[in-house]
Specification:
Number of helices: 12
CATH superfamily of the largest domain: Cupin
CATH topology of the largest domain: Jelly Rolls
Oligomer: single chain
Strand order of the largest sheet: 1-2-11-8-13-6-5-3-4
């Protein structure tokens, strides 16, 4: 089954199904500037100390962004599988304003940024990624995006083949794909050309239920870890298989001041889940 392709006038971030918004880039005044900024030549001219995961075949190394870009520029095949450009040292300045023009077209009710809590906004900033590849065979395996987040991805250059549940579709330059929360998916980079896309995951303010479920699961794992072994929070992160974003969400609520924490908890629709979180927080504080 093919992922539904729609014009921008039919798009809504409240959709319960994945959709591909055709020629979305035509409606972004800054899209030509974004294409230029994300060209390999422009990126390789930056000065950044960011590190990224750089995949070559089945091997993934943590290396400097500039080293990875240099290897691509020299003709090597590879896949930068998620550069957190807003959390780094130059992306927020050079790319942030261009990407903000994308979200001005459609209104994303973002739970984390609506809280006006610095740590929650910081967590949202590390959910903004650029994916860069060159050469055939690079992909992401089946997964569900963490902390109940929805996602959009805008194709800037090249093509990607998306599999979402039992549907599939190709996004090409200017196309945007939207994935609702909780949907299992995988992605393949197509062809051997330079391939670049930009994305943002966010927790919908109107649908944060999956986020609270993941928070409870993470806090319960932490409670069990500390209770059974008397080990520390840092040891928990190092030894337990908890997603980095789930861990980040746990840190947001564990280190929030009482007023901030109460503000977050008022958004939990399930009273029994809220009680469970409050009890876990009381034990862990």
């Amino acid at each position: 089954m093919s992922i539904k392709r729609i014009p921008i006038c039919e798009f809504s971030v409240t959709s319960s199904e994945p959709v591909i918004v055709e020629k979305f880039g035509d409606y972004i005044a800054a899209f030509p500037d974004l294409i230029n900024a994300l060209s390999l030549t422009s990126l390789a001219a930056m000065e950044s100390t960011d590190t990224v995961g750089f995949a070559r075949g089945s091997k993934v190394d943590e290396i400097g962004l500039m080293d990875a870009l240099k290897q691509l520029q020299n003709g090597s095949d590879g896949y930068i599988n998620g550069w957190e450009y807003m959390a780094g040292d130059v992306g927020s300045i050079t790319l942030g304003p261009l990407v903000s023009s994308i979200e001005e077209i459609f209104f994303c009710e973002n739970f984390l940024t609506s809280l006006n809590i610095p740590s929650a906004s910081l967590l949202d900033s590390v959910m903004k990624w650029i994916f860069i590849s060159q050469g055939p065979g690079s992909y992401s395996d089946w997964h569900t995006d963490p902390i109940g987040s929805a996602a959009w991805m805008l194709m800037v250059q090249g093509e990607k083949l998306w599999f979402v549940e039992d549907q599939q579709g190709i996004i090409r330059p200017g196309d945007l794909i939207f994935i609702p929360p909780g949907m299992k998916h995988r992605v393949e980079n197509i062809g051997d050309q330079y391939n670049v896309a930009i994305s943002h995951n966010w927790v919908p303010k109107s649908d944060s239920n999956l986020m609270w479920i993941e928070l409870v699961n993470g806090l319960e794992k932490l409670d069990s870890f500390i209770s059974s072994s008397s080990r520390t929070l840092s040891e928990f992160h190092e030894t337990e298989s908890v997603d980095n974003l789930v861990f980040g969400l746990m840190m947001v609520i564990l280190h929030a001041n009482p007023k901030e924490r109460e503000k977050m908890l008022t958004f939990i629709p399930d009273r029994s889940r809220r009680d469970r979180i409050e009890k876990l927080l009381e034990k862990l504080r």
